[in-house]
Amino acid sequence: MTERAVAVRVPATSANLGPGFDTLGLALSVYDELTVTTLPEGRLEITVTGQGADEVPTDASHLVVRSIAYAFEAVGREMPGIHLSAHNTIPHGRGMGSSGAAVVAGLLAAKGLLAGDVDLGDELLLRLATEIEGHPDNVAPALFGGLTIAWMDDTGPQHKKLLVHRGVSPLVFVPEFTMSTSVARGLAPLQVTREDAVFNVSRSALLIAALTQSPELLMAATEDKLHQSYRAQAMPATDALVKRLRAAGFAAVVSGAGPSVLVLADGPGQRLAAVEVAAGADTPWEPLLLAVDVKGGTVRDYTEGSTTRS
């Protein structure tokens, strides 16, 4: 492979959105950005700045590198040596899809490096990302942007992207502490009552309407009985903030597996009022006033002298 370089940008995501457990995801305007340049086979160089820079590995076990390798193996191509330069702004271990973003970043880098030889289409990218990540609710919005509904059928993972109503204003409260996704997932029960299942089906359906057409319904639409209450024991400060915000009339939910809290505000003014409510909490929270990302992950040719985009 001749020397190539690609630049990749991937948004943060918030999954579940309350009742849409393992199904709904939203892309948010916080981004990890990286460049990948090919090197002679066998060489690997990694530099990381920003979030997680002191924690992530700088060898072949780096999740972006593993995802690049996974894509090359999936299409039967030999992976070249690479230089990876990553700048992360998505908080790690906070329920904002940092691992899903890393997976998507690696796959999009592979797409760019393989351009002109093998086409990694959307369906294949989603399948590979789901195989690596284990479930599609975070990787779908990271890939495609907007609000996504993700599901599995006999042919593999599927998704539907929807445009979010312009009145919806996301706000994320990020704490200093982290939460293991695997631990959080283990706290959710394997079986629930039919009443709770019906409750969440109704709220998930309502949430689609609220996010795309009727933001005034967000408070009722974000109620949940499947997972948040069971995870509360592991995240008491998160649970307390969700309850505090909801008691004040804000559509607050656990962001992904937590511990961050997502507020789906009905307009920018309501978002500022939510920040004031959270300021009185016992635990400090960093408010991120965000927009819905509509593009999803992008990759462009970064080779010197090239302006090709894909």
Summarize the structure.
This protein is an alpha+beta fold and 310 residues long. The chain has helices spanning 63-74, 98-114, 122-133, 139-144, 181-187, 194-212, 218-221, 228-231, 236-247, 268-278; strands at residues 5-15, 24-39, 44-50, 81-88, 147-153, 156-162, 168-174, 252-254, 261-266, 286-289, 298-301.
What does this structure look like?
This protein is an alpha+beta fold and 310 residues long. Helices cover 34% and strands 26% of the residues. It contains 10 helices and 11 strands. It has helices at 63-74, 98-114, 122-133, 139-144, 181-187, 194-212, 218-221, 228-231, 236-247, 268-278; strands at 5-15, 24-39, 44-50, 81-88, 147-153, 156-162, 168-174, 252-254, 261-266, 286-289, 298-301. The strands form 2 sheets. Strands 1, 2, 3, 4, 5, 6 and 11 form a 7-stranded mixed sheet that branches. Strands 8-9-7-10 form a 4-stranded antiparallel sheet. A hairpin with a 2-residue loop joins strand 5 (147-153) and strand 6. Helix 1 (63-74) crosses helix 2 (98-114) and helix 2 (98-114) crosses helix 3 (122-133). It is globular, with a radius of gyration of 19 Å. The mean pLDDT is 93.
